[in-house]
Structures are given as C-alpha cells and as structure tokens.
Amino acid sequence: MIGYRKYWGRLLIKLEQIRTKHVRHRNFIIFISFAIGILSALAAVFLKLLVGFVEHQVEKLNDFLGSNWLTAIFPLIGVGISLILLQRVFRGRLSRGVGFILNSIMTEKSRLGIQHTFGHILTSAVTVAMGGSVGLEAPIVATGSAIGSNTGRDLRLSYRDTTLLLACGAASGIAAIFNSPIAGIVFALEVLLLDFNIPFFIPLLISTATATVVSQVLYAEKFFVYNVVPWDMASIPFYILLGAISGLLSVYTTNVVEYIENKFAKMPMNVYTWLKSGIPLCLLIFIIPALYGEGYTLITVLLNGKTHALTSHSFLNNLGNVHIAIIGMCLLIIFFKSVSAALTMAAGGNGGVFAPSLVIGGVAGFLFSYLINLTPYFNVKSPNFIVAGMAGVLAGVMHAPLTAIFLLAEVTGGYTLFVPLMIVTAISYFITRKYLKHSIYHKALVENKIIKQTTEGDDHI
Prior knowledge:
With 461 residues, the protein is an all-alpha fold. 70% of the residues lie in helices and 1% in strands. The chain is built from 19 helices and two strands. The protein has helices spanning 2-22, 25-65, 74-89, 99-107, 119-129, 137-154, 159-178, 181-192, 201-218, 236-265, 271-287, 296-303, 308-311, 322-346, 354-374, 382-398, 401-411, 418-435, 443-447; strands spanning 452-453, 459-460. It has a two-stranded antiparallel sheet with strand order 1-2. β1 and β2 form a beta hairpin. α2 packs antiparallel against α6 (137-154).
C-alpha cells in the first residue's frame, strides 16, 4: 500500500505540473467533478444492485417457508459481520453517518481517510442486504465525499477546492441512488455547504448530471414505479394536517434515534453490545416483517394500492378484520422503524436514517389517507399522501425541506405534486424547528461549538 501511494503521488505531481502549464484551473475542476460523478455513481449502483438482489431472494424464502422466522435472524448476522469489519479491519477508524463529514469540513480541512472510500460500501452492503433496518444513503454520501476529498488531497488542491470536490461526491451519491440530480445538488447545499459560493454550482451540476446518467445506464429501474395522480384543491386542509403530523413524527424519530444511540455510545462496541441491540432488532423484525431492510419495497407496493404487503407473514393476518390489521401494522411500523434503525447502528451496522425517515413518512401518509377514506364523507388519493408524507418527515428529520421537495418530485416522475409537497414540508419543518433547533446531522457540531448559533436560531460556521 505504501509503494502504491508513493507511485500514485509521483504520478499526480507530474500531472499537476502538466495541468498548471496547459489547463485552466476552472476547466480542470470541472473535469475532476465529472470523474468524481462517475466513481460515485458506480459505488451507488453496486450497492443498489447487491441489496436489491438479496432482498428479492429473502422475499422468495419467506414465501417458501410461509413465515419470516429465518430471515428475522439475518440482520443479527449482517450487523455482526459489519462489526467485525469495523473493529478488526478498520480498527475503529471508519466513522458512520453524515456528521463526521461536516466535522471534517470544518475542523480537518475537508480531509477524509482513504478507508472511507471503500469501507462504507463493505459494511453497509452486509448490513442492509442482510436486513439491517437502515438506509444506504449515508454510506453512499460518505463514500462519494471520501472519493472527492482524497482526490483533492492527492492533487494538492486548496481547502476550498477540496471541499467542493467532497460536496460533488456527496451530491453525486444522492443523485445516483435516487436518479435525482437536482436533489443531490440541493442536499449538498442544505446539509454540507453551509458557506456556499456561486462558483460551486457548475461542478456540482456536472458531477450530479454525470452520476445520474451513469446510474440510469447501469440500473435503469425507477426508484418508485407508479402513476402520478393530480391533486385537487379540496385536499389542501388534509395536506396541512399531514404536515403537522409529519412534524411531530420527525421530532419523535429524531429523539428516539438520538436516545438509543446516546445510550449505546457509552458502551464499547463488542459482542455484548452486538447481542444486546441485535437480539431486540431480530425480535422486532420477526413481529413486524416490514422493518426488514430499507423498506422501499413496501412503499412501492403501497403506492400501487397493494396493502397485503403490510401484514404479510405477520401475526396480524390472523385477526380476521383487515382494517384493524392494516391500521395496527401501520402504527407499529411508524413507531418502531426508528427504533430498529437505531438498534441496527448500535449493534455495529452501517447505515443512516434517510431511508427510515422516508418509510415512516410514507406509511404515515398512507395511514392518514386510509383512515380518511374509511369515512363516508371524504375520498382522497392515497398515493399523493404517501409521497407528501415521505417529504414531510424527511424535511423534518434532516432540517432540509428543499432536498425533500425536489427529491420526491424527481423520484415520482414529475412536479405534479409540487404544491402539496411545499405545504407539507414547510409545516413539518416549522414544527420540527420549534422543538429541535438543529438537525440530527448538525446537533453534535453545535454542542461542540464547531457551529455557532445566532439568536435567530440559524446555524453558521
């Protein structure tokens, strides 16, 4: 490894000498952002294909056994393998989540260790593919950020340019995994680049567009497959109410994740903590099969009106009353998805709360519309409320309403629901900020006085 780094360093120095003589700096940064978009997209596609394949096999195994008792054990194995990788291979030097990226930008000149370029792919793949109840978005963002950071370091670029390349990698990861370039850019601007400059925009645009094209070429399947249904003015009061519900769920989700993570953070990561958090995780997944993995498959079937997936292989199938079974399972998913996500991380898994937030919001939107449609007085379009609920909870948990709006608008195939998305996310964000001044990503930075807060409650470097 040392010899490789030495040879690579000499090569980069030679390229740097050639570049300074013949290539304008701005053009060079654009070219590098293009390359980072390709690399980040390849990482995202690999993870999507791997996890999607394993989850499909799990569904067939559950159908064959007529129960999910065997696959409920898989998450314990997956997080156990991830824990071994974190402890024995990476020696505790592989930080998880998104917060460490922000810390790197503000305190370490945007320098991320080279282990982050591949470590998150390995650990998140075994975690999520084996049923860990988290998402791939945070590992993809970390991988893309590390690719950009190490590229900037090896090319001996300035702190400003390295930060830009780091953001290009993060944005490209989001763009590739969701096929949503605008959402990738907005995510980088809202979450990572607190000190944004206009010249940053073109490289971000190039990298996310490139990542989206590569992702579509290698993985043409759409993230959510359903027909967008136009919304009607009579539903606006219900969207306002859904926004309030989404805000409260955002507060609940954030508090639950932080409480469990803080409780386990005081314990060393070992076999004891793996079992203490992994066994309850398996029990939850056995009781609530929909908690297995990311949960996007569940959202897809709900968008297409197939409610049987909610209670499939669960004890609620035996209740006899389909309405009670559906309502009961929705409530269980809403209140325990965040618990299972936090337990997955505490047991040694690698993932993030991005996907759990979307699942919680989607199921909440479905349940809200389902209850309305049970009454003889109203009839609302359930898919629209599923999408709006996803945006609402994501906006609240991340404190990133624009990311939520553009992400859901892009993955659902258009901007038909733009106004309802704006209503729900705005209300959800307002309510969340009332109870939680900082997002789940920025809170630790504020507490450590890396970010200071003004009297108006805005975050600044």
